[in-house]
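#data-curation
PF: Archiving a pair of folding outputs for the training set. Convention for this channel: one message per protein, sequence first, structure tokens after, nothing in between. First:
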Amino acid sequence: MRLSRFVEWGLAISLLANLGLGCQALGGSVPLSLALTAVPAAIGIWLLARCRDPFQEAQILGQTSEILETIGDAFYALDRNGRFTYLNPKALTQLIKPPDQLLGRRFLEVFPEAAGSPLHVNCGDVMRDGKAREFVGVSPILKRWKSYLILPRPDGGILVHSRDVSAEKAAEQALLAERMKFGVVVEHVPIGLLFVEAPSGRVVLGNVPAKRLIGRSANDDPFPALVVWEAYDESGRAIEDQDHPLAITLATGEPAELVARYRRGDGTLAWMRVTTAPIHDMDSTVTGIVVALVDIDAERRSAEILRDGEARLRRAVEDAPHPIMVHADDGTVVHLSQAWTSATGYDRDDLGTIAGWTRRAYGAEAETVQRAIQSLHHLDGPVDEGEKTIRASDGSLRVWNFSSSPIGRDATGRRLIVTMAVDLTERKRAEARLLLLMREVDHRAKNVLTVVQSVLHLTRTDNPADFIAAVEGRLASMARAHTLLAANHWSGADLRSLIVDELAAYGGPGRMVIAGPPVAIAPEAAQAVAMNLHELATNAAKYGALSTVAGRVDVAWMVEPPDRGGCLTLDWVERGGPPVAAPEKIGFGSTVLRQTVETQLGGQLTLDWHPAGLMCRIAMPADCFSTSGVTLVPEGAVTVPAAADAAPGGRVLVVEDEALTALALEQVLMEAGFVVLGPVGRIEDALDILGSIRPDVAVLDVNLFGQDVYPVANRLVEMGVPFLFCSGYARLDGINDHLRRAPHLSKPVLADHLIATLNTLLGAGREDKAVA
């Protein structure tokens, strides 16, 4: 903007006058920036006034205008009425108004929001009393921090100089905030801090922890206390005055540190670390000392507790009943249980390091395992390492399952891992035995099914009823052999029990004599021997001695001495029956006898069809039997209930979860004249039937889809209904006395045996019950 000569002349005079008044008002001082801008402008105007040459006059006027136009701060002038008379470019930029909206107009007319602001008040005060004013405040127009200098003009107006100091103000506030933060940090750090002046030793600053530790504040001048502070070393010797850290640093200018038991402000002795560090100026002269007071009493007690804890850990590990190892990240085995060395056979000295352990236990895999163990120290929680095969000192292999977990650090800072092992060797062997047993069970089950298939194929008869009876009898014989083997954990079947079970249905006073030493038939031979006994008993019941009341059977066996072959010889002799003759054709029984004895068992069979009765000798080699560890079974035959007439219309509840078995039971019972309720295969269904119908008797399978049938049995006891158990279990465990009194028939059960038992339960002479 180019000013008129009149305006330029007045402005120069005003600048010079304002400069003088400003110096007087501000105590002889004026901002350097204002001086640097006002003086050149005033000099230019002065030169202009002296100049008489028109060309020079124009040149000076242009230079003065350029100075004011390019000044970096805002300048504007107001007359005595508050009207704008001049604004430099910076002022126009800040006020965001064009010149034609400002020049000649009153300040409050353009900026009414400034009314009552510090800027407005100070401008009015300068116009009234002619005294310059300087202040810092927020611009009512721009809302930013401004530094204002308001100078009076000779004509009653004012000159306003303003500079944006928002950045300086923000920096000042940030510095103040940092100082406050630093003060808060110093005051609240958990250690005592003192700033000591050197060389006087005067304490100029101290925080609250320092006051607490020393027992006095910085204003109390704790320097003498720091120099003569009561302290004792590890042995209890008092620390000399010249040995205190502050005294050392004051004397030498070097840092110093002392750990000792100091007398705290509360009178107690506590371990503390006192450290002093000098503060140097540019000439490396010590001008101050920083004193740090750290109460380490709790730390020292924690260290003692840690040492005690490590001792307890060592005792706990060494006495643990399981293999336990504590090892550090440097490869050292810190603690080792006695169980670990006992199980492996290695000495504790052999296992001082992880390398020593892996080299002995893992052989060629030692390095791989050692790296895996080292990686455990980077864990932040427990880990199951799984199963590993280790080698014991005697060369035997054992299977251990390892799990590890970090347990912190020891007193030296080493990271510790505890590794626990579970010896799975015996369990693995048991699992192998179980697997072998499962394979054997599978093998035996398939063999049984094959034998059943063979029985079905080889049984010949034109009468279906005879066919069913023959097959049932042979299967029942096999089942009894299996029951005996299961009772003896498949170690063998007692020969006397096999004979008694087969002849029980035909027993009676004087009808049979059984004699012989304790002998157990091998599991592999038990089924064949049982089948042979069944065929002999069936033949005797149909055609031989047991087919008449006067007939009898003598069964005797003996074990030959080793020098005579050591065989088991069994003699079957029938007497008192009808005359006997050799059969015209070889039947199923004879075929089974010869095939099983001579081919399967590797023995000898002799059949003598003597008219007085059949005589049969079976000789079995030593691998078919055992005489050691066999308990003598008391003599006496087990008899079955005598057959009784069925009670037509009697209602039988059948609870059986195997569909085919349930259908067979239903058919047998219906053919015997019973009314069948069910069959049902679930406990809930059986209880539902009992809730609406009262049966006369019940047949209960014990296991129904994994659940015991006992709730149904207990309900029958409450109702007074008799029942029997029909199960594949050899015996029933965990039942009460009421249930134990119920008959227990082992599957497979003969139809006649089942009917006879049910009729016995119903009671001889009991009145028939009509169907509800």
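PF: Second:
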Amino acid sequence: LPADADDRTDVARLSPEELVLRFRASASPQAYRLAGHLALGRPDLPVMRLVQAAVEPDPRPQHLAEVILGGLLTTVAGPPGSYAFRPGVRELLLRGLPRTARNRTHDLLLRTGGLIDDRAGRSPGEFRALIPSRKGTERAGPNESFATISEESVRQLTVRERPPAPSPFPPGLGARYRPTRRLTPSGRIWLAEDTGPDRTAPDRTASDRTAADRTAADRTAAHPVPTNRTVVIRLHDPATDPAARQAFLHNARRLTRLSHPNLVTVLDAGIEGDVPYVVMEHLDGIALGALTRSGDGRLPVPLTVSVGAQLARALTALHRAGLAHGGLEASRVVLLPDGTVRLSLFEPGLASGPGSRSADLRALCEVLLRLTSGTSRPTVPVDSRRLDRLPTALRIHYAHAFDQLLSPSPAAQARGLDLLGDPALLTPAGEAYPPRRYRALGPLRVGLPDGPADLPRDVRALLAMLLLKHGRTVTHEELRWGLWDPGNEPRNPRGETTRLAKRLAEILGPGVLATAAHGYALHTSTDELDLVRCDELVRRADAARLEGSLTEAHGLVSEALSLWGDAEPLAGVPGPAARTARTRLLRLRLALHTKRAELDLVLGEYDRAATELSGLLGAHPHREDFRRLYLIALRRQGRVEEALEVYEEYELSGGRSPALTALGRELREEYAEPVDDAPPWSEYEQRPAEPDAPGSMVSAPDELPEGPFPTEDGLWTPLLDDDAEHDAAHAPADGDEREERAQSRAALREAMRSEGLEPEPELDPDEDPGPEEEEEPEEPEEPPWADFDTGFRACARYTLADGPVDRDARAALHGLVMELLADSGTDAAAHELVDEPGGPLVLLAPRAEAAPLLRATVEGLPGRLARLAGLRLRIEFWQVEFGLDGSGERSLGRADADAVGAVLDASSAQAVVALSDSLYYDEVREEGQYGPAFPPDLFRPLADDTGWYHLVEGGGRPGPAADLR
């Protein structure tokens, strides 16, 4: 083979013949034979394993590794393990196969297909079909057959399309709402998707509307804006009596106008045919009945007291509106993750007179008696000694309140409600309850009142998933894919999950683990969870920073970082869900370090910032945000020379950050070094003068491609260019003398400047330009951004749409934007977050794609909007064009603000994401090799065609169009 001096270690520059010769000389005979067989099909890792198993009598992993690492393959877009042969290599490998082997391609396909036939439909995860995907996560070659399988295997591997099941809703209701899951065995309550246009809830009056009028035919939409929100629909018993229908519609109209923090929002109600229905918002929480179903029904004392107080406030608001619940029980009370109680599933068809309201209060007493004594059978007067689940200091108070609620007197019942709502009850309740302490920002630990819990390894995996989604139900399907890797699942995943849940409930005790029909949930509002504490500290730090309290903000961020242990988050917890969460939490930790370093610099604590950033940069050398802040800290300490060394180390590694490049130029100017206007990476495109110089260097570990094996071109990064010629050896003989004269002239000019004199423009005395050369203007040097191929950048603004907001709301919005940036994976050096009066503004760096932040916003908002306390959010993405010479920026057009506001006002969504027309076609509609980056129907055009929008549902109150108070 040619010598390495000719750069033959760079496989990307070898011809196909040289690649195959090189591989044949270094690989084992088994690996070379396997490479020839692999050339018959597609070189994806699952396929290569199948082919090896089909053709090798003794298949060994090292032979397959030789093929992957031997330089014949290169990684391609797709899941880990996606490869392709380099151009020309496949044909040469096929030519090297024996004639009989080449002619037995069909036999090979049959043998490979036999392995699939044996596993199809029997072993989940053994074989995954590779198909094109809209998001480009899978690939499939059009002419790369790798197996021949039987018709039976095709049937087992194919998802059979079943005929659509008939809708459980009446025709008019089913035309708008698509059922997604049945919530009760009776089929009366459904989770559904609202696919129709948004409209305000019906505003009916008895004088101009009758029950018979309320059909799907005469209901019209106020605004034709699709919602696609998730709702809960309850179908009531058929009503044929006109009086009953009128009573239902009358009470339903009042419910749609009622808004209270402890009452579920009723979005729509009516009668289709003879079936009354109520459409409510979907609450992502836990039913109180599911939390008390297991064990003895005992709850933590603070939670019991809080539930009683909030239910008392809910019934007070309901009764003041002239309504009654009509069926209060534990299964109709929903606990949100933060401990908020929402009363749901009203009975609008029942009379709402004084008798119904009195029945509500007696039902409330029965629910609380069950929580405080274990029985719901009241005896008057209530014996305080039976309330043994309450601390002694509260028993007499609650016994008196229960006596009042069970009284036939409305006035006495009202006094009982006031006793339940006394805020002073929470203090003794909290003092009597030792909270559980969950630690996930490190090794997973649980502190119980009697000491640390001993958690088996598989139970830790279940607990981690429940903590990461605390207060919300984790479905059986989510648990299956989060607890076990594909192919390693137990024979009965549902039964194994039930066993683990029972074991976890035994360890944690009653009142914590909720068991629902479709999954499990862990309620932690009265306990300590470091994930929740960290989120709270970061939110408070953002609020303090916005108010200018930088010292307070720094202390809060430091306290948040102190929650992390020395080990990585969820250390020792198995399962795919824990691995994914571990990466996200580590990213959050690094973002907090960045936030604290920025505060140090603003506060003038340069020594502290430099010390911390030095350690962080040593542990994470690829983090450009750490390096940028470290350079700033060194510069402000006066350590310019050391800062320049750190920057030059970054240059030598091939870094290309525009922010760091500009900072490096400033450091060189301060250090009085000549500034090279060429990009810092251009010097590596010059070939060294020595013929024996090495042709490449090993890449940093974080630059290796994802996948089980890196290919050879992933391990080596060529830094030399064949077209560049080094001319140092051809320099003129008098070069040293000319350089000495130039240094003398530069020193003289510098001395004149130090005296306040401006020297004349300098001409080289050794050169006598001719007339043509004097008249010809000098060609300007390329700016450092000349290597960029775009003059555009993207911007995103997050604005609260409900007028003036307080400090807490602004801080909550700032924290939400920070989390979306972290979820997007956007490097801190690639964006700038500016806090403006109108809301946070994100300025992305040139060439930085907006798609990651846009995707993180669309996917992450539904689970985070609850922290805005019902405030509506307007988000806008647009592009600006800037001159490559720094001549300024201009917008390429933005979505019309009035049109965006009208869309949000016309819907009950809590947020709207708007895109400019140019950004939509550049980032959303642009198709890559494997299809569009976003679903084609995700965004819809605005009415004035100035942009595109997407509505996002949240857990807050509906927008003005649906708020009928």
